[in-house]
Amino acid sequence: MYPLITLTTDFGTHDSYVGIMKGVMLSICPDARLIDNTHHIGPQDINAAALAAQALTPYFPPHTVHLVVVDPGVGSERRPIALETPQGRYVGPDNGVFGLVWQQAREQHPPTQVRAVLLDDPRFWRPEVSATFHGRDMFAPVAAHLASGTALDALGTRIDDLITLPIHAPVFEMPTQVVGRIIYIDHFGNCISNIRAEHLAHLGPIEDLYVFIPDRWLGIVQTYANVPQGAPLALIGSDGYLEVAVRNGNANQSLGIALGTEIRVRRVS
Amino acid sequence: MYPLITLTTDFGTHDSYVGIMKGVMLSICPDARLIDNTHHIGPQDINAAALAAQALTPYFPPHTVHLVVVDPGVGSERRPIALETPQGRYVGPDNGVFGLVWQQAREQHPPTQVRAVLLDDPRFWRPEVSATFHGRDMFAPVAAHLASGTALDALGTRIDDLITLPIHAPVFEMPTQVVGRIIYIDHFGNCISNIRAEHLAHLGPIEDLYVFIPDRWLGIVQTYANVPQGAPLALIGSDGYLEVAVRNGNANQSLGIALGTEIRVRRVS
Amino acid sequence: MYPLITLTTDFGTHDSYVGIMKGVMLSICPDARLIDNTHHIGPQDINAAALAAQALTPYFPPHTVHLVVVDPGVGSERRPIALETPQGRYVGPDNGVFGLVWQQAREQHPPTQVRAVLLDDPRFWRPEVSATFHGRDMFAPVAAHLASGTALDALGTRIDDLITLPIHAPVFEMPTQVVGRIIYIDHFGNCISNIRAEHLAHLGPIEDLYVFIPDRWLGIVQTYANVPQGAPLALIGSDGYLEVAVRNGNANQSLGIALGTEIRVRRVS
C-alpha cells in the first residue's frame, strides 16, 4: 500500500509552483504516489475546491492524503489544518475548502473518527516558512509526513471549529416544488445544481417532474442519448446531482445558464 | 514490471473527473503507474483520440493498458470494449477511437494475436453503473483489472466487428501527383497531413517533389533549421507524416491551413 | 530511492508528444517516477525554461534528472547536452535553458563537481534519430539512462563552454537606488522582478524603501494580507525575488505591468 497524495490547487500549470511542491513531498516521502487532480480551480475559488475535495473522496482509498491549496488568505490569520475521517485525510488552509467533507463526515460518523488539528508544530514544516507560499513550506511537507506514517495528532493541537461554507441547500417552496441553484459548471458546459436525487424523490415519481430553467422547461431523462444531438436535457448526473446539459453541446454557452442561476423542479400531474 | 496505464480523454483538467478515474484505478490496482497522455482531446473528437492511441502505441511497453475515454455516445447502444494486440492493450468505447490501432494490428499480425472483447461481464465494473460516466464506472475499473493481470477473455465476449473510421488515405491523381489532407494540427500550429514518407517514395526522389498548399508551394526540407526564422516549410515529421510548418512560428495561423485543408505533392522534373 | 525524472517542456498538453517521451523513458527505466513540472513554457521561451529549471532544483533530491525540452534549434547545430551538479542532473539542448543552473553551480562549487557532456554517444539514443523530435529520440532516452544509473561521463565528451543567457542583473544607479525588470509573470498575474532581497539589503532597511512602477509607488509589505482586497503591493516573493502583486487580483492585467517593465527601488528617508 503506497503512500498516496492527491493535489488540488488553483496554481495553474504554467509555473513551477506545483513541481516545487512535488519535490518537497518526494524529498520527505520518496515512496509517495502523487496524483494530480486539478490545478485549474479558479483563482481563490474556495467553493470549487470544496466540491473537488468532496468529489474525490469516495473514489480513493482511505489512507490517501488529499492536499488542497486554494489559499487566498495565505499570510493572514487563517489557520493551517489537517483532517482525518474514515474516508480520507486532508491538508490545507482552514478557509472552507474542507467544509463539505468535514460536515458530511461529522453527520455520518462519531466525532472520535472525524478529527482535525491546527498545524502548529513547526517540526513538520520546512525550516523557513515564507509569508506567501504555505503550499510549499507547510502544507506539502505536512502532507508528506502524514502520508509516510506520522499520526494526525502529532502534527498539532486538536480543533473542531472548522470553517464551513454556507450550505447551499435547495428550498422546498411547496411540497411539489423545489428551487435550487447551479453550483458548478464543468469542462463540457454541463451545469450541475445543488438538487440531489433524494430531493426529487420527495416531489414524486421522476416522470412527473419538470425542470424549469430560463426560457424553457425540460423533462428528466436517463442519459444524453435520450435526446437528439444538440437538444437540451436534464438528468441526474453521475454524482447524484440534477444537471442541465446539451447533448454533444455546451449548456453553459447555449442555454444562458451560469453559476448561481436558479433552477426549479415542479411536479406536474 | 509495474502495471502501466495511460489516460487519453476529452475531460479537460478543470474538473475532478480524471482524478476520480485515477482513484478508481488505484483502488483496484494499487501498484499501477498512471501516465497522463492528454485530457485535451477536443470534446468528442473521435478522430483525434484515434490518432493519439496510435501515436502512443509504439513507444510504450506492450503490457501497457491504454485507457481512452472520448465517448459522445455514452448511455446509448455503443459498445464498451477492450482490445489486445502484440503492441498494447486498450479499453474504451467502440466508436472508432481504436479504429486505427485495430486496423493496423490486423494488417500486421495474425488474427489470433489481435483480439477484442465486448465488456459484458459486470464483475469487473463498479457495482453501480451510471448512465453518463462509463469512464469511472466501467472503463477505469476494467483497465485496472486488465493491468493487474486479468486476462482479456475474462472481461467479456469475443467480438471482431469493431467500428473503424473512414480511412483517409491520400489519393494518387497521377503517378507523379498525390493529394491528401491535413488531419491534425498540433500545439505549435504544425499541420500534419495523411501523406506518409512511403507515399512520397512512389512519386520520386524527395528533392524533385513540391508541396502545394493554398497560395504557395514548398520544397521538402530535412528540418526546421533549413529555412530562415518565420519561413514556411514542408518536412517529414517525426512520425513519418508530411507536415507543413513555419520555423519558430505557427503554420495554422499564418498560412491559412486548417483541419481538412487539401495538400498536393507533385514531382516536378 | 526511486529514479526520479522531472519534465519541463513547451509541448503543451493537447498532443501526444509528452506521452510519447514518457513511454520512451519507461521502456528504458521502468522504475522511474515521472514528475510533470510544466508543459506550458511559452513556445521556444528559453528564458522561462531556464527560470523553471533553476526554480525546481533546490526542492528535489540531487539524484533527480531534470529533463528540459524547449528546443527552437532542433535539427540545427545546437548541441544536445547533459549536466551534473551537487544539486541535480539535467538533460536537454545547449541553448541557454541550463544557463542559470550552470552559472549558479559554477559559482558555488568546485569545477570537478559541476560537469557537462556533449551527448555524442549514439548508444544511449533511440536507434533512429529524427531531425525534429530530439526530445523523443535523444533527450528522453538519455534522461532515462542517467536516471537508471549510467554515469554522466559515459554519455559523451566532456565540455565546459555551455551557452548561458545574458545575465539580467539589476543596476544600482545610486547607492540608494536600484533598477531592475520584470522577468516572469505567473498564473496569478504576479510580476516577478530580477531584484533580490540581497540587493535591497544594500539600499537600507526595508521599511525605508519604495518601489516605483508605472504611475505609482508602493511600500514593501510582508504578505498579501497586509493590504486590502484588490490593492496593489510589493513584497519579497517565496523565492527571494521582489515582486509586484494585487491582493486576490491580477497585477499583470490591472497595473499595466508586463515582461520587461522597469521597476525601480529607492531609499526615501
What keywords describe this structure?
22% helix, seven-stranded mixed beta barrel, seven-stranded mixed β-sheet, alpha+beta, elongated, 269 residues, homotrimer
Query: What gyration radius of chain A follows from the Cα positions, in whole Å?
Result: 20 Å
Task: State the end-to-end distance of chain A.
Answer: 54 Å
Main sheet of chain A: which strands, in order across?
2-1-3-5-4-6-7
Q: Tell me the strand percentage band of chain A.
A: 25-35%
| SSE topology string of chain A | EHEHEEEHEHEEEEHEEEEHE
The number of helices of chain A is: 6
Total E-strand runs of chain A: 15
Structural class of chain A: alpha+beta
Give the chain pair forming the largest contact, with residue counts. Answer: A-B, 34 and 33 residues
Overall 3D form of chain A: elongated
- Which regions of chain A have little confidence, pLDDT < 50, spanning 5+ residues? none
The amount of helix of chain A comes to 10-25%
Oligomer: homotrimer
Biggest β-sheet description of chain A:
7 strands, mixed
Mean pLDDT of chain A: 94
Detailed description of the structure:
Three copies of one chain form a homotrimer. Chain A has 269 residues and is an alpha+beta fold. The first copy, chain A, is 22% helix and 31% strand. Chain A contains six helices and 15 strands. In chain A, the strands form two sheets. In chain A, strands 2-1-3-5-4-6-7 form a seven-stranded mixed β-sheet, sandwiched between helices. Chain A has a seven-stranded mixed β-barrel with strand order 9-10-14-13-12-11-15. The first copy, chain A, starts with a strand and ends with a strand. Chains in contact: A-B, A-C, B-C. The A-C interface holds A 11-20, 22-24, 26-27, 30-31, 34, 36, 43-44, 72-77, 130-133, 136-137 and C 1-2, 4, 6, 8, 13, 33, 35-41, 51-52, 55-56, 59-61, 64, 186-188, 222-226, 235, 237-238, 248.
